[in-house]
Design brief:
mainly alpha, rod-shaped
Length: about 40
């Protein structure tokens, strides 16, 4: 079991986490940009 826990779980975790962080950053920045434009 430990043999399969090399870089596999890291890949499976880092991809959704990076996507979630990117989505969260865009959700945080877009409202600020809209406020500045208005």
């Amino acid at each position: 079991m430990s043999a399969g826990l090399g870089s596999g779980p890291f890949f499976y975790w880092i991809i959704p986490i990076s996507l979630f962080i990117g989505f969260w950053i865009t959700q945080r920045k877009i409202p600020k940009m809209e406020k500045e434009i208005n």
